[in-house]
Amino acid sequence: MNSIQPQDGALGRLEPATRWAVLVLASLVLGGLLEQMRLPAALLLGPLVAAVLMQTAGAPVRVPRIAMLAAQAVIGCLVARAMTPAILAGFSHHWLLFVSVILLSVSASALIGWAISFFRIIPGSTAVWGMLPGGATVMMVMAEAHGADFRLVAFMQYLRVVMVAAAASVVAVMFVHGGGSPVAAGLLSPVDWKDFAATVVVAVVGGWLGLAMRIPAGVLLGPLAIGATLVIQGWIRIELPPLVLIASYALIGWSTGLGFTREILATAMRALPQCLGAILLLMATCGALAWFLVIALHIDPLTAYLATSPGGVDAAAIIAAGTKVDMSFVMALQVLRIVVLLVIGPRVARWVTGTLDTKQRTADEPTSSPPQ
Question: What residue ranges are annotated as transmembrane (predicted)?
Answer without folding.
Answer: 17-34, 41-60, 66-83, 95-121, 127-146, 158-176, 196-212, 219-236, 242-260, 272-296, 329-349
